[in-house]
Specification:
Layout: E1 4-21, E2 27-45, E3 50-55, H1 69-81, E4 87-92, H2 103-118, H3 125-135, H4 139-144, E5 148-152, E6 156-159, E7 167-172, H5 179-185, H6 204-212, H7 219-225, H8 228-237, E8 244-247, E9 254-258, H9 261-270, E10 277-282
Parallel strand pairs: 3-4
Antiparallel strand pairs: 1-2, 2-4, 2-5, 5-6, 7-9, 7-10, 8-9
Helix pairs in contact: 1-2, 1-3, 5-7
Length: about 290
């Protein structure tokens, strides 16, 4: 059979409000998630056992992991179906690791989608979401691959405003941040839930104006841990055409919104720095 492939697209939190904390320690969130063209690539081939190989510019960051989230996703899917997993997966790791843009969660979600096809599983979407939830808070939203509003600890998904045709820039200054460390460093009150949003944004300027009234509640704590993030945000704001600059997720990747994909690509080229990872192109619209 021909080799199957699946993209694990970069996830961007347009805003991220921390609205509370459960008794078990998990934080409650309100966020709108969108996706960019930057992506890891997962492929699968027939095999007797179940294995994973790594390629791509960030493969070395995952070398030595004994229980990669991609393998855990495949094993969880096989257990759900009462079968033994059999396949060889290759992960082309193009996105920086532990950087606030989905990374491992997007890879795990891609594995669930890819192996469902490869193993010819007719699994209900609700069951697939249940498996995703057990793998991590960001895996369910990464399973959707379209603009989505997430709440709860990440497991409650609903419709999000349709974004306009516009460009997005991603910049990571070569930093990896552990999400628990960023949450632990957070100070201040919780944000009110359910920020009011339109059904759609007609332009990049309108979207950026609405988002400017919201925030990423983890940005200040991430900057406290790594002040370099503030420098990245400042550099993005200075690029031509930038309408909004913000950190995504728990960092350290930051993004900029632009009127067009070409403007975002030009900004990425302008922000070439030693050790920095940049990508600019279209914002995906579901």
């Amino acid at each position: 059979m021909p080799m199957l492939r699946e993209l694990a697209s970069a996830k961007i939190n347009l805003f991220l409000h921390v609205t509370g904390r459960r008794p078990d320690g998990y934080h409650l969130l309100d966020s709108v998630v969108v996706f960019a063209g930057a992506a890891d690539v997962l492929t699968v081939e027939p095999a007797e056992g179940f294995s994973l190989s790594l390629t791509g510019p960030f493969a070395a960051s995952l070398e030595g992991e004994s229980n990669n989230l991609v393998l855990r996703a495949g094993q969880a899917l096989a257990r759900w179906e009462g079968m033994a997993p059999a396949a060889h997966l290759n992960l082309e790791k193009n996105l920086p690791v532990a950087s606030g843009i989905g990374g491992g969660s997007a890879d795990a979600a891609a594995a669930l989608r890819l192996l469902s096809r490869f193993w010819n599983l007719d699994i209900p979407r609700a069951d697939l979401l249940a498996i995703a939830t057990r793998l991590g808070a960001d895996v369910p939203v990464c399973l959707t691959t379209r603009q989505t509003r997430m709440s709860g600890i990440g497991e409650i998904l609903s419709e999000a405003p349709v974004p306009p045709r516009c460009g997005i820039l991603l910049v990571n200054p070569g930093l990896s941040l552990a999400t628990p460390d960023v949450f632990a460093a957070r100070n201040g009150a919780f944000s009110p839930p359910d920020a009011l949003l339109p059904e759609a944004w007609m332009s990049a300027a309108t979207m950026s104006s609405d988002l400017s009234r919201l925030r990423n509640d983890l940005e200040a704590s991430a900057i406290g841990l790594f002040p370099e993030i503030a420098g990245v945000l400042g550099a993005i704001k200075e690029t031509y055409g930038c309408l909004l600059a913000r950190m995504s997720g728990s960092g350290a990747t930051c993004f900029g919104i632009y009127p067009s994909a070409d403007a975002a690509a030009a900004a990425a080229a302008a922000l070439t720095r030693p050790g920095w990872w940049t990508w600019g192109g279209p914002l995906a619209r579901g």
